[in-house]
């Protein structure tokens, strides 16, 4: 076996290749779970009966009216479950509930000969509800102390002492919204009982092994009686890590009970109203800085909105707490976490997995307070970056911390930061109604599952007699290019051209006990396993070749499908070597295995080294804001990002750009709104369609987008020196929101602190602009009024934040206990009270 | 009647099994075509996009992209549809890939990640690839580009490729994976179709004629009448029939709200509803012309409409949507009514009994209600000439492409010697119907066009209508936007000196 990170000569990894299914994608021939329906005769279709209450007891359920309709075959209810009536791993998610806990919760499922029959059947099912009080907002949950799960604390040093020695102290609140995954392919499952009597479920799942386990426990079967296959997903982003299980279990239950294939595909409305999303968070914080802007102490309480059940909320919260420092050294810190229990969808994994939420808290703080410190926000961030030798609050050394400074320096140069800063200043001086903003933000993101056991993977590699290679591994393909990378890894490890390698769909009967394809770990873990399997085979083949070539096995070289050796001109074609090996009765297949070394984590103390390494990056974004409306444009973004030595540059570039735009969507555009009124529709998701929940379109991509992969970045701890890339780039989008803050601030006087709602929609930006202008007017004819104010009419009263649900809270500078002149200036700063409600 | 048939990728298929409530998408997927996907079922994501052959005024054919999730399959009786499978050949068992130029660019440049939206993007991109008036001319050579360009002027700079590709062609396609840059690069790298390209050559022949269709099932009835007379007869017999052209609203009602109207009448190819006449004192726009057809044929001659169209939903929607539909549904957040109100448009209502002309300002009577009687249809919209010289359309929404307005404001003003001689302001999103901002108009007419008058009028405008809080915006923001857009109109339409100097 060779070292994990060491690349042989002429590696296939590192080459730019298209997505392995690209030709199938563009022709429409790539099959997704629901594309298989037309290939299955006699398939039944499933439709849910969804609760019209946020919280209620189910006191009666009459299915007869549905069963009397033509085409309705069966109504699945709790009484049909032979095993455990639960869809989760925490046993808090009844599959057929007798108490509905959110608006849209599925009570039962109707199976029909056609989708239309099932839908009509579901409309005919009669359910009696006894409504119960509900908790919808985070504020309500905090007031009612409605929490679930563990309440961990990350701490180091003495936060109180850190704050006490700070000469500048601020405190505030910040509430920000979640995010719908909006994978283009909604959840889908297609189950049947196969010719061997086993339950076979096709599922759009990031976690086939757990889907298999949940199907088995719902049906009262053993795992070996259930096989789950995932051909590919039309996007996952974490939304298919836990959420597919119950849906696949429903389809499997229907298949077992009716003896016919059952297809369950959520339409977009159902997907939005039934499945979990990124956790919204609320934070209260206190922070202190010294006169140089160095962070001295941070005390924070983060409350994640977990929804109706735990799902992955505990590990999401843990990752948020482990990332509240982002890229900055905070010497004394105390961060508490808790999970609100609310009557909403059960929030779940979403690209970044709490990391973005934790990091956003500190980035928001820095952006807000920089003007009061009198330090440019980019400079404030730069000064506080981790330095070599420093350790995170969780006790983990920040290996390669110097890369943060190297990356931001390189980015400043590539992004022409200084020149453009001057240009933006000049632009803003010239334009009264349009302002531009420029911001740079860094990313540091820990790679590995926090739960150590998940950091293992398997692979199965077959070499057939003709030399062709078939690989299977435990990871799933959701567009992230994992299969593309795995083919490149296998070709590199075996020494054959890429065309020799075919990859078969992910199935639980090929590789068992897999971890979710999540936490950006797919290539690290499965790549390690594929490499391991290939090297087992290769070592056996090298012995065969050594005999043929009369060499020592270590002197055999296999590259590009040609076998040769040191000191010989003789060559053997790959296929000939494989055939010879077969006749010598050499095993031509292997199971590969990989476990990440060196991890440990004590969840009770929130201390340890949970991550193999950190991924680093930074972005500069420039935006333009229209002062009349708050509407904005993303002019340019420059990114330098660390992917180690890239396994597949086109794939990594796609992950960086796509993650960035998705992050920008979360922070600016995408807004989940629940009905918080006392009407019967309380708890209903108001944004439950593509027409009301807006994700980025072409109009939200930066007009100029330059991405550069950080060079000479070999990561010793990962396959072929690469780094994980799935999640970290999402957080590069902080630069967009901070640029919006800068642009809004440019409408006000120097030193104005900008409180910006999140998501920072045009409305939220408008209110920030409005507040900045008001600050300018209140500053009177002093120095600040050199900036001319845009006309503001009389029609809008009051001070505004985003104003709607996911709005921000307050920032209050607090006395640091001395007669410090700077602090007095802060206290004199006119800080409007920011009413969240009108 | 002929058997019910749809030509898909050059192959004629029997389509009689499609019911009146079967979308083109569901029918295609039932036939085993997997390229078109359902992403949202309401015409917002474009994963279901396909190409259809549509007639051009000169007798040729244009390949037009539409959302297949919205129109009924039966509306394509006798028509030609092309899906992503029909553009190029996929690799497979005993098959070597033979990709269409659009597919090749998308595949090689990383234009697909999960691939689910990709066939829809490919179809939208192919329609633009084949657009006959796509020219490589980058436009005005003196035009500024890059960061020197401010505000709305960015559009021209960044939304057209050097090959004439209009990015708006894909404004109705959503991708959640790529961040769009590689898709844009793929689009801008496209050349011209080869002379041997069969779809390019197909453009030279006439498009399939519309043919009368009638299907009756237990679930309802679908009829494409042979002409206006038959339409009036059927409508008189069943006044609650649903009229569909592009079905961009009716399709959503069917998919999301599960409406199953007993009778659907397809009117999109009735010639009397498809006229476009430029008269000496008015322009008449047929109610069943698609917005794209109007946009193309007016070619900017009505600047306020030219402002409207790129902001009206997406290209995929505009290829099906009509003015008749936008007025007929009577939504208070439709984007055409504010513009047509500002243009002082009238609506021509027709029935078997004859025709009448109603000012649009008197057309809406309540939430989704109008003066249109049962049995009446909207035949056309008239815009009086001359047009006001100063116009603007402000759409307040979260997203610039393909969003629904929280507030829409259209202004058409005539200034005379520094005074406001005439002004019409149409508003959407601030009342149960689209409204005229009459109090604001009164505050402006006859007054000098100064910043003080503009501010005074803006304050009046802020109090127009009865804006509500909803998921798109707060009432307070809507009111603020009414005020701010008038100030913005002033800023854009007064001669120097600038505002701050006059303060």
From TrEMBL, chain A:
Span list, region Disordered: 778-838
Keywords, sorted A to Z: Oxidoreductase
First-level EC class: oxidoreductase
Keyword Oxidoreductase tagged: yes
GO MF, one example: xanthine dehydrogenase activity
Alphabetized SUPFAM superfamilies for the sequence: CO dehydrogenase molybdoprotein N-domain-like, Molybdenum cofactor-binding domain
Enzyme Commission code(s) on record: 1.17.1.4
Composition-biased stretches (Gly residues): 794-806
Domain Aldehyde oxidase/xanthine dehydrogenase a/b hammerhead: 27-133
Short name of any one Pfam family annotated for the protein: MoCoBD_2
The name this protein goes by in its record: Xanthine dehydrogenase molybdopterin binding subunit
UniProtKB/TrEMBL annotation, chain B:
Annotated TM spans: none
This protein's UniProt keywords: FAD, Flavoprotein, Iron, Metal-binding, Oxidoreductase
Domain FAD-binding PCMH-type as annotated: residue spans: 208-388
Classification via CDD domains: fer2
InterPro entries (alphabetical): 2Fe-2S-bd, 2Fe-2S-bd_dom_sf, 2Fe-2S_ferredoxin-like_sf, 2Fe-2S_ferredoxin-type, 2Fe2S_fd_BS, Beta-grasp_dom_sf, CO_DH_flav_C, CO_DH_flav_C_dom_sf
Segments forming domain 2Fe-2S ferredoxin-type: 2-87
Pfam families, per the entry: CO_deh_flav_C (PF03450), FAD_binding_5 (PF00941), Fer2 (PF00111), Fer2_2 (PF01799)
Name of the protein in question: FAD binding domain-containing protein
Species: Occultella gossypii
């Amino acid at each position: 076996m060779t070292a994990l990170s060491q690349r042989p000569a002429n590696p296939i990894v590192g080459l730019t290749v298209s997505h392995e299914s690209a030709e199938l994608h563009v022709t429409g021939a790539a099959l997704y779970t629901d594309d298989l329906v037309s290939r299955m005769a006699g398939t039944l279709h499933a439709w849910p009966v969804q609760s019209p209450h946020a919280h209620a007891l189910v006191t009666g359920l009459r299915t007869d009216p549905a069963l009397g309709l033509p085409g309705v075959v069966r109504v699945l209810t709790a009484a049909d479950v032979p095993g455990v009536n639960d869809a989760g791993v925490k046993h808090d998610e009844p599959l057929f509930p007798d108490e509905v806990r959110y608006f849209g919760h599925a009570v039962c499922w109707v199976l029909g000969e056609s989708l239309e029959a099932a839908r009509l059947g579901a409309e005919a099912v009669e359910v009696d509800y006894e409504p119960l009080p509900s908790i919808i907002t985070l504020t309500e949950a905090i007031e009612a102390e409605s929490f679930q799960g563990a309440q961990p604390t990350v701490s180091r040093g003495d936060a109180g002492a850190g704050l006490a020695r700070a000469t500048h102290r601020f405190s505030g609140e910040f509430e920000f919204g979640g995010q719908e995954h909006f994978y283009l392919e909604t959840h889908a499952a297609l189950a049947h009982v196969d010719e061997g009597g086993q339950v076979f479920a096709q599922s759009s799942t990031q976690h086939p092994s757990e889907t298999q386990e949940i199907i088995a426990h719902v049906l009262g079967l053993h795992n070996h009686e259930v096989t789950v296959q995932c051909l590919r997903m039309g996007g996952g982003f974490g939304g298919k890590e836990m959420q597919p299980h119950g849906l696949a279990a429903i389809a499997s239950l229907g298949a077992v009970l009716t003896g016919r294939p059952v297809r369950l595909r959520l339409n977009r409305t159902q997907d939005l109203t039934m499945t979990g999303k990124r956790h919204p968070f609320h934070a209260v914080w206190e922070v202190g800085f010294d006169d140089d802007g160095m962070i001295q102490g941070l005390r924070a309480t983060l409350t994640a909105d977990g929804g109706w059940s735990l799902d992955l909320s505990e590990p999401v919260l843990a990752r948020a707490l482990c990332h509240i420092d982002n890229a900055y050294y905070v010497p004394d810190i105390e961060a508490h976490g808790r999970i609100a229990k609310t009557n909403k969808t059960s929030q779940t994994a979403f690209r970044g997995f709490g990391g973005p939420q934790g990091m956003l808290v500190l980035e928001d703080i820095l952006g807000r307070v920089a003007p009061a410190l009198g330090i440019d926000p980019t400079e404030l961030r730069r000064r506080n970056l981790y330095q070599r030798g420093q350790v995170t609050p969780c006790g983990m050394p920040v290996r390669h911390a110097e890369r943060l400074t190297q990356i931001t320096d390189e980015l400043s140069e590539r992004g022409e930061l200084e020149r453009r800063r001057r240009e933006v200043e000049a632009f803003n001086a010239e334009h009264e109604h349009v302002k531009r903003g420029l911001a740079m933000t860094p990313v540091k993101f820990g790679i590995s599952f926090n739960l150590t056991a998940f950091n293992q993977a398997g692979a199965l590699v077959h070499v057939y007699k003709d030399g062709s290679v078939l690989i299977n591994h435990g990871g799933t393909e959701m567009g992230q290019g994992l299969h593309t990378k795995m083919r490149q890894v296998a070709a590199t490890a075996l020494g054959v051209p890429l065309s020799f390698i075919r990859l078969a769909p992910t199935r639980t009967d090929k590789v068992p006990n897999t971890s979710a394809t999540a936490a950006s770990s797919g290539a690290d873990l499965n790549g390690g396993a594929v490499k391991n399997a290939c090297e087992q085979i290769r070592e056996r083949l090298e012995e065969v070749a050594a005999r043929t070539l009369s060499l020592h096995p270590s002197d055999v070289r296999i590259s590009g499908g040609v076998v040769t050796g040191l000191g010989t001109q003789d060559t053997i074609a790959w296929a000939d070597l494989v055939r010879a090996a077969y006749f010598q009765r050499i095993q031509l297949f292997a199971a590969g295995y990989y476990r990440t070394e060196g991890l440990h984590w004590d969840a009770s103390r929130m201390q340890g080294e949970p991550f193999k390494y950190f991924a680093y990056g930074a972005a500069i974004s420039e935006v333009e804001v229209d002062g009349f409306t708050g509407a904005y444009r993303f002019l340019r973004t420059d990114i330098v990002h660390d992917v180690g030595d890239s396994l597949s540059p086109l794939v990594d570039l796609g992950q960086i750009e796509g993650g960035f735009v998705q992050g920008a969507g979360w922070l600016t555009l995408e807004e989940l709104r629940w009905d918080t009124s006392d009407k019967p529709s309380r708890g209903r998701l108001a944004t439950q369609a593509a027409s009301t929940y807006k994700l980025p379109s072409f109009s939200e991509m930066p007009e100029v987008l330059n991405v550069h992969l950080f060079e000479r970045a070999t990561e010793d701890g990962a396959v072929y020196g690469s780094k994980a890339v799935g999640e970290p780039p999402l957080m590069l989008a902080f630069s967009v929101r901070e640029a919006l803050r800068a642009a809004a601030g440019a409408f006000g006087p120097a030193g104005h602190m900008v409180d910006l709602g999140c998501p920072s929609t045009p409305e939220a930006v408008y209110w920030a602009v409005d507040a900045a202008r008001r600050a300018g007017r209140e500053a009177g004819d002093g120095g600040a009024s050199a900036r001319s104010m845009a006309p503001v009419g009389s029609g809008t009263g009051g001070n505004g934040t985003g104003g709607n649900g996911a709005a921000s809270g307050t920032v209050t500078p607090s006395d640091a206990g001395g007669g410090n002149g700077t602090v007095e200036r802060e206290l004199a700063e006119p800080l409007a009270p920011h009413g969240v409600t009108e | 009647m002929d058997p019910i048939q749809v030509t898909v990728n050059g192959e004629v298929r029997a389509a009689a099994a499609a019911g009146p409530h079967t979308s083109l998408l569901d029918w295609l997927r039932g036939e085993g075509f997997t390229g078109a996907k359902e992403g949202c079922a309401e015409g917002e994501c474009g994963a279901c996009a396909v190409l259809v052959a549509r007639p051009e005024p000169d007798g040729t054919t244009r390949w037009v992209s539409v959302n297949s999730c919205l129109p009924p399959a039966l509306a394509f009786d006798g028509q030609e549809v092309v899906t992503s499978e029909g553009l190029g050949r996929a690799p497979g068992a005993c098959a070597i890939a033979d990709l269409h130029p659009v597919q090749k660019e998308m595949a090689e440049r990383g234009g697909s990640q999960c691939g689910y939206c990709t066939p829809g993007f490919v179809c939208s991109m192919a329609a633009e690839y084949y657009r006959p008036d796509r020219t490589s001319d980058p436009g005005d050579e003196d035009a500024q580009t890059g960061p020197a360009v401010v505000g709305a002027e960015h559009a021209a700079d960044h939304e057209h490729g050097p090959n004439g590709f209009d990015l708006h062609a894909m404004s109705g396609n959503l991708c959640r994976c790529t961040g769009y840059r590689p898709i844009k690069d793929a689009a801008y790298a496209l050349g011209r179709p080869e002379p041997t390209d069969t779809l390019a050559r197909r453009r030279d022949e006439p498009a399939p004629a519309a043919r009368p269709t009638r299907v009756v099932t237990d679930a309802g009835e679908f009829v494409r009448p042979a002409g206006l007379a038959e339409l009036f007869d059927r409508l008189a017999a069943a006044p609650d029939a649903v009229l569909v052209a592009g079905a961009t609203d009716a399709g959503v009602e069917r998919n999301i709200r599960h409406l199953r109207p007993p009778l659907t009448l397809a009117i999109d190819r009735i010639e009397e509803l498809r006229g476009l006449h430029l008269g000496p004192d008015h322009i008449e726009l047929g109610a069943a012309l698609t917005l794209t057809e109007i946009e193309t044929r007016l070619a900017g001659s009505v600047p306020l409409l030219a402002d409207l169209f790129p902001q009206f939903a997406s290209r995929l929607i505009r290829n099906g949507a009509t003015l008749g539909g936008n007025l007929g549904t009577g939504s208070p957040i439709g984007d055409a009514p504010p513009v047509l109100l500002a243009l002082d448009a009238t609506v021509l209502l027709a029935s078997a009994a004859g025709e009448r002309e109603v000012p649009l300002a008197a057309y809406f009577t309540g939430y989704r209600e109008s003066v249109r009687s049962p049995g009446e249809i909207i035949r056309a919209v008239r815009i009086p000439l001359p047009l006001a010289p100063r116009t603007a359309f402000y759409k307040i929404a979260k997203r610039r492409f393909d969003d629904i307005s929280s507030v829409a404001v259209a202004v058409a003003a005539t200034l005379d010697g520094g005074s406001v001689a005439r002004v019409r302001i149409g508003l959407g999103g601030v009342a149960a119907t689209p409204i005229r901002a009459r109090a604001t108009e009164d505050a402006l007419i006859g007054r000098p066009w100064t910043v003080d008058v503009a501010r005074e009028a803006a304050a009046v405008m802020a109090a127009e209508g009865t804006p509500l809080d909803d998921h798109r915006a707060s009432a307070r923001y809507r009111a603020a936007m009414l005020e701010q857009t008038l100030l913005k109109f002033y800023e854009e339409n007064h001669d120097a000196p600038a505002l701050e100097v006059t303060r």
